[in-house]
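Quick start: what a row looks like.
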Amino acid sequence: MATKGFKEENLIGEGGFGKVVAIKQLNLDGQQGSHEFVTEFRPYFNDRRKYSKMVDPRLQGNYPLRSLHQAIAITAMCLQEDANRRPVISDIVIALDYIASKSNCDSNTNQHLEPETDIN
């Protein structure tokens, strides 16, 4: 099924072909969509308890917490409103490569984040 893996909270109904899921598609040609996308996710960067909501749920919490924090920091730098303050892509690649190499070294430790569950 095409919607496998989508969050239930995005389910808006069911039709003859299965579940109907609401998603947002970012228009790369327009600035408004980009601004709205950044505005929507900015609160997640200010609260470490929300970091796990930005991670692919299929990882089921199987990632080093330190690597998540480093990746979030890189992401936040890339979303600076002033384009001149954003890192160049070559620096991003180096940083992500470093995180990946450290994650592989740390894969045998217990620094993993448990999946967040809703209390409601």
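That is the whole record. The longest helix spans residues 89-105. The two ends are 28 Å apart (CA to CA).
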